[in-house]
Amino acid sequence: MKTLRSRIIPVLLLSDGGLYKTCKFKKPQYLGDPLNAVRIFNEKKVDELTILDISASRNKNNINYSLLSRMASETRMPLCYGGGVSTINDFTALIGLGIEKISLNTSLFTNPSLISEASSRHGRQSVVASIDVVEPTLLHPSYRVFNYIKRTSRPISLTDHLKDIVSLGVGEVLVQSVTRDGTQTGYDRKLITLLKKQLTIPFTIAGGASSFQEITQLSLEHCPIGLGAGSVFVFKGKYKAVLLQYPHTPLNR
Amino acid sequence: MSIGIIDYGLGNLKAFESIFSSLGIDSHFCTSAYDLNASTKLILPGVGSFDWAVTRLREQAYLDRLSSLVLESGIPILGVCVGMQIMTSSSEEGSLTGLSWIPGTFSEFKFPPSSNSPLPHLGWNSVVSHNTPFLSISNDYFYFLHSFHFVPDDPMIYDNLCISNYQYDFISAYQYNNIYGVQFHPEKSHHAGLRLLQSFSSL
Asked: Are residues B190 and A45, on separate chains, in Cβ contact within 8 Å?
């Protein structure tokens, strides 16, 4: 009997209404129209789609409801949205648009009670904790949590932060490697091992995916796991031409 | 003919409306007995917890009319995820009693700590119909997002069942006369979901 498959998830970055791709969370490169991208991925029958608005928290939590509403109505697979979600009203409004999962990042620190409030109202499966991490170095030998707005490390370790948010009631975790973002040098295997060991809730790892082959191999080796990626789904070739792609899966064959 | 999508404050109503519209099928939201009466078939959506869903549905003035249409008039109804759950008697997730239209309860997935099977059960999983195709589905992938699964009082009474597997086999859909329940989200399961909803609307 076949069982639960790993999820392969394009992670798309919004900034001021446009679609962008970053490298190590810097140098946003404009890709094009986000609604069009969402339509194309829907046609490619992707497992899920994650949309992160990296400008929203900076723009006083200005969530682009009209764009998201259109995205939600045109997609036949689950959507996860994150960016500027700071109150239960934001959360509820987004769920009402037809978005399955809402990702919280900054709010995990500025309004942690939002997790339990959203969990009890909408179910914990709708609450995703998004955590950006910096890989260990000689000077800092453990994973550090990154504040993408201030561009600094937060004074908490990854493992402690994970403990906190799980106890508050999140249903899923999205961990993005700042170090590997946009580099296509391969996923952080040590990070996968750490997350598998510590978490009993589902997680998605993103940052560094080098090829479809790597994604397929990891999806089988660590099944079930969520594998998020950006560059490998939006760029083609040495000169990084913008071309939206997605691997063949039993779903879209 | 118009499909009534029951609005009791939960669930992805817009997704269903959008799908039916793309299939050229009329649908409308139901917030009153009048809306229910205008429905040739019904969808009971739901996301969130069992008790929350039961509470919200019991608050609706149209509940008696809904029960009558389903249990007496035999209007086909499709319960999705929590919608499927609240049509039964109870769930380990909560303390309230469901609609009890379907004999059975919901149990939590229980795995040994060493198993690499995170909860909630989240993602695309296989759905296999037990005997004849279930709303056109024999063996397809659908999107799941839940922690509790159906345990019937007596599996023999059902007209059809679907099985899925997550560490062990469990029932992912039931049909009892005109009452259909699916644990997964057909409104978010690409072509398989579209086929299932089209099949339901063609009953």
From this structure: yes
